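User: Can you help me understand a structure? I only have the sequence.
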Amino acid sequence: VANKKLKYPVGLITIDEAVYAGGEYNDTSSGYYLKTGSYYWTMSPCHFDNNYAGVWGFGQNGNYGNGYVYNSLGIRPVINLKSSTIVMGIGTSDAPYIVLAT
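Assistant: Let's start by predicting it. Here is the structure, written out as tokens:
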């Protein structure tokens, strides 16, 4: 954002944000909205050993763990909204979120 190259900046989700949304370590029973049935990485590092970097990620069943970044997994983009942003809807297909500019 600081270099003014991105009109609509997007980041990657962190493990903190995903846990705050309801993700739990080795828990396969929760039904939070980031449980998509797909594997994906977060941008949060967890370790470095044997010349490989490890990051936190999520499994198909919604639980999180860590792995090496040489594995091919998806990602979850995020956008951050100003606190003054007005959001309508509840995030379902019948009442999707509608974000209004402020």
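Now, to help you interpret it: The chain has a mean pLDDT of 80. The beta strands are 11-12, 40-49, 52-58, 64-68, 74-75, 77-78, 86-88, 98-100. Let me know which part you'd like to focus on.
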